[in-house]
Structures are given as C-alpha cells and as structure tokens.
Amino acid sequence: MRRHPSFGPALLLALLLARAGVAAAVDERTYARFPTLSDDGVLFTAEGDVWRVPLRGGDAVKVTSAPGEESHPAVSPDGTRVAYSATVDGPTEVYVMGLESGATPRRLTYEGEQALVVGWTADGDVLYATRRHSALPGVQLMRIDPESRAVAPVPLALASDGEWDLGGTFYFTRYAFQGSFTKRYEGGGAQSIWRLRPGDPEATPLTADHAGTSRAPMPWRGRVYFVSDRDGTMNVWSMRPDGTDPRQHTHHLDFDVLSPSMRNGRVVYQLGADLRVLDVTNGEDVLVPVRLPGARARDRVRTIAAPAEWISSTHLSPSGDRLVITARGQVFTAPVKKGAVTSVAREPGVRYRDARLLPDGKTLIAAADRAGEVEVWTWSVPRLHSGPAATSSAGAAAASTAAQPTFTAVTREGATTRRDVTPSPDGRFVAHQDADQQLWVHEIATGAGRLVATGTMGAFRDLRWSADGRWLAYVQPGANGMSRIWIYGVADGRAHVVTTDRFDSYSPAWSPDGAWLYFLSDRTFDSLVVSPWGPRQPEPFFDRQTRVYQLALRRDARSRFATREERAVPGRDPLAIAGPNDGRIDLEGLATRVSDVPLVPGNYASLDTDGQRLYFLSWEAGASARKSLRMMPIDDRRTLETIATGVDRFELSLDRSTLLVVKGDEHCVVPADGSIPADLPRAAVSLADWTMTVEPRAEWRQIFVDAWRQQRDGFYDRRMHGVDWAGMRERYEPLVARVTDRAELGDVIGQMVGELSALHMFVRGGDLPKAADVTFASLGAVLERDEARGGYRVTRLHVGDPDLPGERSPLALPQADVREGDVITAVDGVSVLVPDDITLLLRDAVDKDVRLRVVAGDTGLVRDVVVRPISLKREAELRYRAWELERRHRVEEASGDRIGYVHLRAMSAADMAEWQRAFYPVHGREGLVIDLRRNTGGNIDSWILSRLLRQAWFYWQPRVGAPQANMPYAYRGHIAVLVDQETASDGEAFAEGVRRLGLGVVIGTRTWGGEIWGSGGSGLLDRGIASVPDTGVFGADGNWLIEGHGVEPDVVVDNLPRATWNGADAQLDAAIAWLRDRMAAAPVPPVVVPPYPDKRAPVVSKSTSR
C-alpha cells in the first residue's frame, strides 16, 4: 500500500489555533532538537539552550541560559524538575534544575567524559549514559539520586537508553549510535530493543525480526512504543511486551523520526526542523509550531578577532612584497612590512580557495563557488597599497577594504570541483585538476581550455610551470603505482614522460634559464636492518631513499655542479654556455640526460630553485619528525645550509627574490639571497591588527552545499547507490534556513549524507562554541564517597601491564603505595568532603604534584603522600589495559599457557607496536586468540596478515640448541579471531582476510559493516568534516565485501547484556574451547631433528681391493 505523509491532524490543529487567535506559523529560524514532554508543554533544545513551549505551540521561553551547550532535557515524573546535559565547565555533564521561574541549575555528575541524560526513574533518579565506567570502551547506563548524588549502575552491558514499566520490567536499547550517519543501516552495530524482567537471569531481544534499527523503547499501557526503520524511514512503531504484533503509527517519508520521548500517552519527536506530538490513544499526530523570541544570538554577523587560526593558504606576491591569504573562504592581502591587512574578496556564501596573485601584481586568481560550481575566477584589485598599520580601535575592528572588484570566470560549466589552481609565470595560462582526476590548462584571457591528461591511479600533483610559461611539469601515478614526471607543451598540446617507471619521481623544479629540470626520486635502498634474524622478526627499513636529480633539457646544457677539474675539459664549462632561453627542449633522448646532484641521499620533499640555489625540506626518520628547510648552492662548493627548523612549508616568489617560510602560525618572509636569517621570527608578517567579518547564515548555506558537492564528486559510486542526489539537496536544503547554530547544521548534513546508506560517513567539527578550557585530573582509581569514614574509599586501582611500570595508577606507584580499601581524606589540605566531588580538587592538576592524606584501610594509619594525577584519557587507557590483562590471564590459565592472546584496539602504527609486544612472546604456542573486539580500524591489515601467512619450510639446526624455523617466526598453530559489533573498517578487513586466506576461524557477532573506505574529505569552510566514502572494496570473486552487513562469524557467540555485566565473556570462552578442540583434533606436529647423515668413506673389503 502506498504511504502518504500525515497532513490531516496538523492542518486541523492549524485551523483550531487560528480560530483561537493563536498564530500557528512555525518560526522559519527555529531548528528544534531533543524534545521531551512536561504535563502541559514541550521542552527542547535550540541555539544551544533548553526552551519550553506550550503543547499547542507559540512563543518559546528559555529554560537554560548558561554559556556552553545544553541538550537532552528530560522532565521528572512529578513534572517539577528538568535534567539535562551541558558543556559548561569542561566535559558534558548532567545538571538538574526546577521548572519554576528563577530556578538555579545544579551539577550532578563529575564523570569527566560525556554524560548524556536518558530520562528519569519512577522513584526520581536521573538516568544517564556515559563511557566513564567501562573498561572495554562502551556505553554504560547509570542512575543518580539528584538529592544525595549517590550513583549506581544499571547492571547491563552496552545499554544506551531505556525505561522501566510499572511492573519493573526494563526495556532498553542495546548499543549506542554506531557513529556513522547511515540510514537503513543493517550492520552488526544496529541498535535493537531488549527487555529484562524482574527475576530473569538474562535479558531477551524483542526486535530480532528486523535487521535494521529499533531504538528508544517507551512502555505504556501494555505496549512498547519505539522508533524503527522497518519501512525504510525511522517512524514510530509499537509492539506487545514480548515483541509480537508490531504496528506502525507514523508514516513519514522524507525525514526520520528523531529523539522520541513519551509522557501520558503522547510521543513528542523531531521531524526535520520541527516538533510533532503523536497521541497514541487516538492516532492524532500534530505539528507543534514554535517561535523563538528575540534575535538569534549565533547567527549574527560577527567579527573574528584572531583570523589567523582560519588560514587555509598563503602565497607570496610576484615580487614578494605582499602575502595573499585565504582564510575561511575569504581572501586578504598583507604587506610583508608594516601595513594594514586588506580584504580583497569577501562574498557571503562564497568560498574562495587557494588564492594568489598573477604576475601583473594586481590580478588575483582562485577557485570559488561564486556561480554554484567551483570554477576558476580572476579579479583585479586596483590598489594594493602598503600603508601604515591601523592603530585606532576603529581601524583594529575591521580590515580595510579595497574597491569593489570585477570578477571574470576563466572556467565555466564545470560538472565537478576544480582545485590546485596554478597560473603560469607569464600570466597567460592556468593549470588545475578536477575531482574526476582530469588535468586541464586554460587560457586566462579567453577561457579556452584543453584537457592535458586523465589519471587512473590517483590524482595529479606537483603542478609546476617553466619560467617562460611554455611548459607544465606534473606528476602522475603510473599503472604500476610509481609516480612519473611528465611535461606538457602548451604550444602543441603534447605531453611527454621524462622519468622512468622503475622509481618514484616527483617535485619537479625548473631552472629559470630553462636548461634544467631538477626533481626528487626515491632510488636509494640501503636498509638499516641488515638481516632477518633477531627478536620480533626484523624486516628491512629503507631510510634516506631520496636523492636530487637533474635532467638536461637541452643537449648543450652543462651541469653547474661540475668540479673545476670537470669544467677544465673543453666544452664542459657550464659558465661558457650562454645561449638564449628560447624555450626549446630537446625531447629526443631527454629521459637519458639525467644525472645526480652531488647531495647525499636523505628524506627530502618540496624541491624548488631560484637558479642559484636549491631549496628543499629535509627530516630524520620518524612519524613525528620535524622538517628543516635546507639550501644548497648550485655550484662546485657542494655545501648544505639549514635555513630554518620546524618548517611546515616554504615558497619562492615568482621573481625568485623572496622566500616565505611557514612555521605553525608564523609566516616569515626573508630575502632569497643565500643568507641565513639570524632571527627568523622577527621576519614574521604581522597579522596582529587583522580582523575578519563573518555572516554565519551565509556560511552555513555554503557549508551545506559544499558537503553535498563533496559527496557528489567523491563518493565511490557515481550512481550514488541509486539515490537521487540532486533530490536530496532539494529535500534538506530548506532546513538550513531553519538552523540556529553550527551543531544544528551538522545535524542537517548528517541526515542528508545518511541517505546514501554508506558507512564511514562522519560529520563533525566546525566552528562550534568552545567549551571552557578546563581539565580535570584522575588518580587512576575507582573512588567511592564514604562520609562515615571521612573521605573517598579506593575500591579499585587501575593497573595495566605489570611489565611496563608506566601503566600503573599514580596511587599504585611504590612511592605512594595506596591500596584498595584505603581512604583519601584530603587533597592539598582540603577535606575531600567539602566540595560536591573530589574531582573539583583535581582541577587543572594533570602531571602536577598533589598532596593526599590517606588513611590505611586495614590499620587506620594516617599518612601524607605526594602523587601526580593523570589525565582522564590516560585513566581510560589504564582501564582498557586492565581489561586486556585480565583476558590474557584468562586465556593462559584456561589453557595452561598453551594458547596466546593478542588484543588489537585499532589498526594503526601504534597497534603494530602492540602486535610486536604481544605476539612474538607467544608465537610458539599451539593456539592464538587475536581479539579484535572494539577495533576501530586503520590500515595495517596487510602487515599482520603477511606475518601470519609465513610458513616454516625448513629449519636451522645448530650444534647445541633447538631447531629454528625459516621463515623466522612463522606461526604453526591454530588461530581464533574474536569480533563484535564494534569491530570496524580495517579490523573487519583483517578478520575477513583471516578467513579467506585460511588462517583461522572468526568467532563472535557480526561486525560494524564499514568497508567503503574514506579519505576524510577535503574539509569544509570552517574546518568541519563531512567525510566522503571514496573507495569501495570487493573480493577476487567479484563481489563487494562487508559493507552494510559486516563480517559473519564462523561461530556466532553473543556476549549477553546481563552475563557480561556480571563478568562473563562468552566469546572469549568460545575461542578457548574451539582452540582446545582443534589442538586435540589436529595437534601441531613437533619439529623432529632428522638423523644426522653418515659421511664416512665406504668400507672396502680386502678381497675387493685385490
């Protein structure tokens, strides 16, 4: 049956309100979220505050007004108080206040991690969700008495929300939101509804008949109401308490039903930007028209006093006297010496990208979405003067603005985003590439364009023009993965490859005289590791692979690096070659005219030259290595100088007279004359008086369209999974006019991109209100307030790996020797019972000496100890380590040390380090558990799989000792991989690889289901992210893998909510049992040394010898 939106009740309500003289119009600038019902009204969040409006709608009244973000309100059963979450003083915590006028909020929790209000219990406790109390990262429901602040857990693992019925049965949502904005999600992390009845030993699932999402149970009068995507959109449904008889109550098609809340037979929910109330007794579903009185605080035009933090690009003017700055989509110029920052492009709703000046010094060029698509534009600014810096308050309030420019489109009718705009030195042409990996050259004056090349193995990079503008060099990945340098002649439109496909070559730099093309190439492979023997499977590491090379563009070119002896040979003196630069390149045999620059191999990048010197970045090996800017004269001296350290990037001006050095927030400009700056920071361009004006509403529109465009241009499937992507923009764009702050915009974008039904769809960040810069420290222990004993009792010390002394609670260090059962009575002389929570005495105390008074739990001895509290992040790390240690001990005790255990939290370089620590000590055991539960992904699956694929095909046998396998550390035992609903991305790829490669068995529950990998997107104007899943994964059998469903375990075992809370780990037990069975059925054969050969000479009998 065709479904239709329910217009009737809303229309009826509008007519009734009109008759009653109440305006029923919805405020076009209200975006209502997280609604909850009181007895006579609705509370909701908008503009970062909690508001209240009558059920019939009308003017809303602000309930909270503290700085920060308030959300998730819930009204107490007696209707007198509201609990809500707020980010006011550091992390998001739970607050409560009366609903009477003038009530004062009271903070309830001091979790230090996000605490979100879920609701109230019938006896008046506030129910909230947090991850603070979990060892293995996961949500935990807690309840807190708003009077005594006594906290107790709900004894269920991974319950994210829930509600008790009148009989005491608890209906709850299993699992928290899985993180990706993905509609119609059916992966292993899909939320479902369970119940736990009084006296039941375990909870039971109620919505297992549906593979998608069911959440937010609301029991009322013999039925349980909830929201589910059973019809493709989240709508309100109900069922009997046993999960049977599902009924649909709303039939919305365009938007999901979000944040439902029930009271007295009514369900309030968010739909798009609106609030609606469903009366389940009669089926009426009506709009609640809301108006927020007064001006919107967060959408006002405002001035940013420190725009430098929003800089996305900086470029020198052709002569090096000015800096062209692109920041937050606007363009400015700043004189290198004293003077005011000038705005040269600011159009509300337009984002300029990577602006720079053309050679005439007054025309700017940039990519911008002025006409809808991101095209290349030029505009002239007649007066770019270097006047004195503004000193008055009025001058400091806003940057001076040049005359209104005239814009000219260089490119038109683009179907995809253009980027990497690179003008030629003569100002005639501009090169750029688009999101379809097409490289273009356009004539700036006419707009005439020519397609240079199309990439198939990745984007182009390092677009570099010759000094005369006749040739464009660029780098293109080849079919074998090696990057090669090409040059393109604008005169004939032909491209020529100039480097080999055997090595990566990149960073081309033209000599100003047109005789040489310098470049970098990775051709040196001297491993720091010289053999495969040693602890933990050493493998080759090739540091300093890169050298600088030079390519003679003309046959008569002679290297200026030649020594005096080489120059003495007739015809070899480079200084005697003085032919004019006619733009000629001798193409025949060009690739063979390559030679080394006399510079030792290193780690180099970003090569450039001014004709007299080579400039490049250099660094030592290491993930966090800082780069240095190095300089080498192009002569026979062969010296190397360091200009600056800690450099992010550098740039030479077009006339090669000036050098820009970027170090963090500093943009330093110095002469490019071979000198070494004595005090580089003194050369930083002053941006102290620079301010920027932003119009949030215009920015929000641009950000929304940009997020939509990035998916259109980057999503791995051009068909967009069959979704009408233009139609999705039409559906969601009207909501942008309704939002009142950046967080609400993120909600709109999230709903829109979710229509693609893909994982790795993350929407976060942007110019959000900054939380108070407050940090709370931890003592690395579970502390329980014990007023009878005058302090906080230590109930558990978090202790990680005992072999790593740094993984201990500060209280457990030898100098503190605080033990479980001891009581902390004072911090720095202040009684811990004076504040609401001991955490308040640890404010901003991370890594600082703190004096504790401790009473021994067994003897009553009082003593003072000095400790250094740790961060809450470090405490979470200790809790996680303790969980890992416990699992390792369980495995070893249950198997008599015959089975090893490795837990991988993610698949990053840090997790490779964990693999090194955990695997090699147990590589010789008969069984191995690889625990990927909660693995958040990464990219190192191939590293670990390649190690497990090693086979022992022969053995070394020394005179003394046991035989050793070759390949070294080849694993010969049985493998069980543990997965769960939060095993994600590359963790899933690893698990699937173990199975497909026949390495072992997968045990647990179905995984997250995210195997369209994302690069993170190109970022939004205000540095928010709407990630783009741009790379799909399919198997050798031609089928797409994992995405949207997850990895199906070979052995399905669920860690049930109640049993897991009580300490059971059924999945780990199943892995141990499976390995034991395999070890018994197919024991690993022992390595037996064969009989030594008998090499004696054959015995010859005397008769034979005769």
Structure explained in plain terms:
This protein is of the alpha+beta class. Among the domains are: 1-60 and 265-294, no CATH class; 64-154; 156-263, Neuraminidase, CATH 2.120.10.60; 693-764, Transcription Regulator spoIIAA, CATH 3.30.750.44; 777-872, Pdz3 Domain (Roll); 898-1009 and 1045-1081, 2-enoyl-CoA Hydratase, Chain A, domain 1 (Alpha-Beta Complex). Strands 59, 60, 61, 62, 63 and 64 form a six-stranded antiparallel β-sheet that branches. A five-stranded mixed β-sheet has the order 28-29-30-31-35, with no helix packed on it. Helix 9 (941-948) packs parallel to helix 10 (986-996). The longest helix has 24 residues, at 872-895. The model is unreliable at 1-24 and 385-402 (pLDDT under 50).
The count of β-strands is 75
Helix proportion: 10-25%
Number of DSSP helical runs: 13
CATH superfamily of the domain at 898-1009 and 1045-1081: 2-enoyl-CoA Hydratase, Chain A, domain 1
CATH architecture of the domain at 898-1009 and 1045-1081: Alpha-Beta Complex
Structural class based on helices, strands and sheet pairing: alpha+beta
CA-based shape: globular
Q: What proportion of the residues form beta strands (DSSP E)?
A: 25-35%
State the distance separating the first and last CA atoms: 109 Å
Tell me about the biggest sheet? 6 strands, antiparallel
